[in-house]
Design brief:
alpha/beta, Rossmann fold, 7 strands, 42% helix, 23% strand, binds guanosine-5'-triphosphate, binds magnesium ion, nucleotide-binding, G protein activity
Length: 204
């Protein structure tokens, strides 16, 4: 069974928990605890392959300028970077997160890194309060060679599921490339890092 780890990152209130819960339960419940970080776990089948999925939903991001993200960068196979289209500050924060992830991946196979980051402009239902244009999100994603979409965790169930599915598909196809190249011993190193990065876990 493939183990896939996804970190959902973004500014406070951007909708990280709403997106995660929407994907896992297909529901939007409106209010989400933001005082505890969680790793949700779920078993699913993707393209005939069994997957043990872990999704990291942090309670809040460190302040700008303190973007170490060291644990997350070691732990995650892929990232969903979320901003709120009605909050320009959240877009600036998403940009800083993207840069941090990309700089840490310098030297890693370019194609693998490109496909495992998804930039998401959330709260599309609030387009009457829009502060960030669709084209700005698209350009940021293109400049950083990651995928992009705008959606609403509140109103778009299928879009949220499709976005997560794309992320998982990209990660598992990267695994296939990695498996061909993986030197022996790297699996136990991955386990070691995973043990060091212990988080509270929830099964769904
Ligand atoms: N209108 C609208 N509201 C949303 C949407 N997604 C999330 N919200 C609301 O935005 C608020 C913050 O959402 P959360 O999912 O808790 O955001 P978060 O990024 O997890 O926030 P922290 O955990 O505090 O960092 C909540 O009141 C949600 O109901 C959306 O697509 N549209
Ligand atoms: Mg949250």
């Amino acid at each position: 069974m493939a183990e896939v780890k996804v970190a959902v990152l973004g500014g406070s209130g951007a909708g990280k928990s709403a997106l995660t819960v929407r994907f896992l339960t297909r529901r939007f419940i409106g209010e989400y605890a933001s005082n505890a970080e969680c790793i949700y776990t779920k078993h699913l089948c993707l393209d005939g392959r069994q997957i043990h999925l872990e999704i990291y939903d942090p309670c809040s991001q460190p302040q700008q300028g303190k973007l170490s993200l060291t644990d997350e960068l070691h732990w995650a196979d892929g990232f969903i970077i979320v901003y709120d289209i009605s909050d320009r500050a959240s877009f600036a924060f998403a940009k800083a997160l993207l840069y941090r992830i990309r700089e840490s991946h310098t030297g890693v196979c370019k194609k693998m890194v490109e496909s495992s980051i998804f930039l998401v402009g959330n709260k599309q239902d609030l387009c009457h309060m829009r502060e960030v244009g669709w084209d700005e999100g698209q350009k940021l994603a293109m400049d950083n060679k990651c995928q992009f979409c705008e959606l609403s965790a509140a109103e778009h169930c299928q879009e949220v599921v499709a976005m997560f599915t794309k992320v998982l598909r990209n990660i598992t196809s990267n695994f296939k490339v990695k498996e061909k190249r993986r030197p022996s011993g790297s699996k136990s190193m991955a386990k070691l890092i995973n043990n060091m990065f212990g988080k509270r876990r929830k099964s769904v």
